[in-house]
Amino acid sequence: MDIETMSRTAEALVAPGKGILAADESHPTMAKRLAAIGLESSESVRQTYRGMLLGTPGLSEFISGVILFDETIRQRTPDGTPIPELLRRQGIIPGIKVDGGIKPLAGFPGEVATEGLDGLRARLADYASLGARFAKWRAVIRIDGALPSATCIETHAHALARYAALAQEAGLTPIVEPEVLMNGSHTAQRCAEVTVTVLRAVYEQLGHQHVVLEASLLKPNMVLPGVDCPHQVSDEEVGRLTIRTLRQAVPAAVPGLVFLSGGQSDEQATARLAAINRQGPQPWQCSFSFGRALQGPVLRAWAGEETNRGAAQAALLHRARLNSLARSGEYAPSMEAVS
Ligand code: 13P
After folding, report:
1. Contact 291 CB / ligand 1 (< 6 Å)
2. What is the pTM of this model?
3. I need a surface site. Which of 46, 77, 312, 320 has the fewest CB within 10 A?
4. Residue 315, SS3 per DSSP
5. Which residues of the chain fall below pLDDT 50?
6. 266 Cα: distance to centroid of ligand 1 (angstroms)
7. Could you tell me the fold of the domain covering 3-336?
8. Rounded Cα gap, residues 262 and 243, in angstroms
9. Can you give the residue ranges of every domain in the chain?
């Protein structure tokens, strides 16, 4: 393993003004996204949509890397260019989701574990040969009454560290994603407590399993009240709480945080990322790795019609540019109107 190369990849992914486009939806998730615009999910629809997304001219000005799904990393554009090559030619780093999705955690009703460690070494080698330079694994933690359990947190922390160590062995920069969900009626304070507990457990395990933090990135949730919490908070408060929480638990050796959007609206995710970046200098770059918050407007503009290709790509560039501006805290909601 070449730690230097993996560290450089991590740094390039969080270069100032740039962030990651998460386009790694599994088949069931993609089916849901396409159903929302009245389309059935088939391999050719997914190929057309993602080919359009990833072929957006000028994308590399704001997007440093793209997380692909297994199907996509093996696909080609209509002119025969492999998707990882399409990205590389634009100066965008190809990445890959390597977890096998979430399944119920046996013995712990209401909680989940992430599958995919079996056979992971061979899959990582395959992805590296297909051109992937970084990887992602997602853990999902739900807040509900007494949940999450300590067992759920330990299980996820252990799996994230096993994955990250194997990714580094294969030469891929690991993105470690422990997502505390925003579903529920919990307060922002409770989200902060759970997030700090989860992150401490994750970094303890990463240490035990000899993961080199300089050659990794963290993909955290923002610290938010649950969507059904009666006490919602301002964007500035989200920024303050998120930074205060992450500073308790994320080592300074980690080069960057790439926040997930997690079901926030696209405008909310951008405004809160800007608020996070207005909290002053941090030990790490604070960037984005948005799925829904980048692709939502694109899917709506595209609607499955080839004639909407230009409008859909313009919607992606607009969102990517605003998130780029959020990296320096310069974003203001008034910029939303200008496309
Ligand atoms: P969202 O930004 O839609 O939460 O997706 C990011 C992601 O990659 C989740 O694993």
Report:
1. yes
2. 0.98
3. 77
4. helix
5. 339
6. 12
7. TIM Barrel (3.20.20)
8. 17
9. 3-336
